[in-house]
Amino acid sequence: MSEAVGDLVAVMRRLRAECPWKQEQTHRSLARYLLEETHETLEAIDRGDHEHLREELGDLLLQVVFHAVIAEETGVFDLDEVARGITEKMVRRNPHVFAPVVSRDGRSATSSTTDGERLTPAEVDAEWQRIKAQEKGRSGITDGLPPTLPALLYADKLLARLDSAGRPAAVDPGSPDLGERLLALVAEAREAGVDPEQALRDAVALRSDPSTSG
Fold first, then answer.
1. What pTM value is reported for the model?
2. Is 105 a residue whose pLDDT tops 70?
3. Which phi and psi (to 5°) does residue 65 adopt?
4. What stretches of the chain show up as alpha helix (H) in DSSP?
5. How far apart are the first and last CA of the chain?
6. At 15, which CATH number?
7. Does one domain contain both 41 and 66?
8. pLDDT classification of 115: cutoffs 50, 70, 90
9. 10 Å Cβ neighbour count for 113?
């Protein structure tokens, strides 16, 4: 752990011990703040404000550390275990970069690609999804998809899973149903390699900018 991160953990441990408000917080009570900080981080990214982004990433990191310290107090896990877990996951799910490995729980993730083969970004994503599905033991297309995701993002991920499963969705851009036409636009964005959620965010931001109004 770096000195700066270690200092943050030490500060949060002391706050949990001495601050009445921090003491009464739980994973559930902090959920709203995690959501708020995530949206504020997205706003900083949209604005292209690096200083603001640095600050918001710090606020987001604080939420991660806060949750980790709460878990540490009951012996469930600590920040080191959080970091170790995501490091192992990144190695397992990127066999095109790292040699196939066996995790501590005995599960293995081997690449289906030829050694030394240069993958395209799309192929890398497909390999990630294949390994993830293998690890999670999914039995359904929507397994592991949080229903609270923004609708465009949810639709994009669902269409991607259907494509990977060899069941591409038949969408009708000329349908009288608005939902069907929206889904068709998401499919169009996927074919063009465009993130529909971000595209809509950018369009809304442009319209809400006073300097662009006629």
1. 0.72
2. no
3. -65, -40
4. 3-18, 20-23, 27-47, 50-73, 79-92, 121-136, 151-164, 178-191, 196-208
5. 52
6. 1.10.287.1080
7. yes
8. very low
9. 14
